[in-house]
Amino acid sequence: MLKGHAPCVVWFTGLPAAGKSTIANLVEERLHALGLHTCLLDGDNIRHGLNADLGFTQADRVENVRRVAEVARLMVDAGLVVLVAFISPFRAERRFARGLVAPNEFCEVFVDVPLDVAEARDPKGLYAKARRGALPNFTGIDSPYERPEHPEVSIESHRVTPEDAAQRVIAQLQRMDVARSKSLMRASKSDSSSPREGPEG
Ligand SMILES: Nc1ncnc2c1ncn2[C@@H]1O[C@H](COP(=O)(O)OP(=O)(O)OP(=O)(O)O)[C@@H](O)[C@H]1O
Ligand SMILES: [Mg+2]
Q: Helices in 18-143 by DSSP H: which ranges?
């Protein structure tokens, strides 16, 4: 436990404009307030840098997710809570990401929204572009999105506010013993009967 708290990957998946980045940013703010060390890997930023050589073919999308999953694993080794906000449309690649870390170190957050709601939001105008045929292989339009079967958290972002959604993720991280404040951690360490002294600590 390098940073005074357990590390974890919090993996946000969902359609374009589902609300992954919005919710992930709020979760990160709250984790900071609790004194946790985080890193946010957002699909857009990663595509400008680390994955600037990749496009949107099926093979490139798989490689896009493979690289970020490997980076997330390295950051978990460094003790961080890693927030990944990636469409990551394929089950197999999310399973791959999960398999790189320990079972209690992966929290899949499905940001679930009907396609018509996401398309009506369209904050980047990408659905409109895809409908015009100017953006081939766009998830939800002409490339599939495979819904998670057993996500740790499922959020219907058309039914809850971003703030409530973020709180649900924090609650799950607390259940997984990740998001506890440092002062709480210190208190439990000095208590020899604390479960934190067990193998998961
Ligand atoms: N409950 C909600 N949770 C999250 N976003 C919401 C919610 N209600 C409305 N929105 C709006 O939906 C949009 C979601 O955009 P956001 O960039 O977060 O999506 P995304 O899933 O990261 O998309 P992309 O895959 O294109 O990066 C924003 O304009 C946000 O304000
Ligand atoms: Mg985003």
A: 20-33, 43-48, 58-77, 91-99, 115-121, 126-131
- d(C-alpha 29, C-alpha 77), whole Å: 22
Residues 84-120 pLDDT 10s: 999 999 999 999 999 999 999 999 999 999 999 999 9
Paired sense of beta strands 8-13 and 38-42, if any: unpaired
* Residue 107 and residue 36 in contact, taking contact as beta carbons nearer than 8 Å: no
Q: Give the distance from CA 39 to its chain's centroid.
A: 11
Amino acid at 136: P
Ligand 1 contacts (CB < 6 A) are 14, 16-23, 43-44, 85, 87, 111, 121, 123-124, 157, 160-162, 165
How many angstroms separate the first and last alpha carbons of the chain? 7
Cα gap 112→135, rounded to integer Å? 23
| Count of all residues that appear for the chain in the document | 201
Q: pLDDT tens digit string along 33-62?
A: 999 999 999 998 999 999 999 988 889 988
105, 7 Cβ separation under 8 angstroms: yes
Whether residue 19 contacts residue 117, with contact meaning beta carbons closer than 8 Å, is answered with no
